[in-house]
Design goal:
Length: 119
Amino acid sequence: MEDLKKKIVAEINDKEIVFSKSIKAGKRIYYLDVKKNRKDEMFLAITESKKVVLGEGDDSQVSFEKHKIFLYKEDFDKFMTGLTQAIEFINEVQGHAVKEEETAEIIQPEEIKIDIDFE
């Protein structure tokens, strides 16, 4: 009975999504989901999902940490202004250093090694 309730809730939540975009970034995936509330008003749900591996080898367990932010239409302008200012600040302070690091980490083709184990 409990499993049936979970499935019904999941189906209802999936129907709310009117647009979805996922962004893969290393061990993280960011989901941008536009949803509708009961009043048919849209809002943005931002979810960060981070893969976490506990243990090593056969004993390892994989789980995902999820964090959500709900952003409503009346806050879009303020949020975008703050986000833009924060990104510009980071680019001003660290922008040049990041570019130098990227060029220093160029891997030459002869350095690439692939280790595949077929069982």
